[in-house]
Write a structure and sequence with these properties.
Blueprint: H1 6-32, H2 37-62, H3 66-88, H4 92-129
C-alpha cells in the first residue's frame, strides 16, 4: 500500500471541480433565472457522480483509505435506491430530493473532504521539510 501525496489530492480535487463547479453554477442559474440550465446541471451531475465513484474505486484499492470505502458503499446503496425509486415512484418531491439534493450533498462532502485532507498533507509536508520544496537534486552531491 502506498500513501497519497499532496499532488495526488490536488490532481483529484481539480478533476472533481471540473465537473462540480459547472454543476453548481447550472443549478443556481436554473433555479433563479432559466430552467433550461437545470438539464445542463443534471448532465454535469452525472459526470460528477461517475468521476467520484471511479476515483473512490481507484483510491480505495490503491491506497486502502477508509473514507473512500465508506463513500463508495454509500454511493452504491444510493444508486440501487435510485433505481428502485425510479420503478415505484413518480412524485416531484422524491425526484428533487433523490435526483438533485442528495447527489449535490454527496458531491459537496466528497470535494470538501478531498480539500481538507490535501491541506492536512500540505501542512505535514511543510512541517517536515520547512517552507522550501526539496527535489532529488538537493540530495545529490555534484562536486
Amino acid at each position: 500500500m502506498t500513501t497519497r501525496t499532496e499532488p495526488t489530492y490536488i490532481h483529484n480535487f481539480v478533476l472533481q471541480c471540473v465537473f462540480y463547479v459547472p454543476m453548481i453554477i447550472g443549478y443556481l442559474i436554473g433555479l433563479f433565472f432559466s430552467e433550461s440550465w437545470l438539464i445542463l446541471a443534471l448532465l454535469a451531475q452525472f459526470f460528477v457522480g461517475c468521476s467520484q465513484v471511479l476515483s473512490s474505486i481507484y483510491y480505495s484499492i490503491k491506497y486502502d483509505i477508509e473514507h473512500q470505502k465508506k463513500y463508495l458503499a454509500v454511493a452504491i446503496v444510493y444508486i440501487l435506491f435510485l433505481f428502485l425509486l425510479s420503478i415505484i415512484a413518480n412524485h416531484f418531491i422524491a425526484l428533487v430530493l433523490f435526483v438533485c439534493l442528495i447527489p449535490v450533498g454527496m458531491a459537496t462532502w466528497y470535494n470538501y473532504n478531498l480539500y481538507v485532507r490535501g491541506q492536512a498533507i500540505k501542512k505535514e509536508h511543510k512541517k517536515d521539510y520547512g517552507n522550501h520544496d526539496e527535489t532529488i537534486l538537493d540530495d545529490l552531491s555534484l562536486f
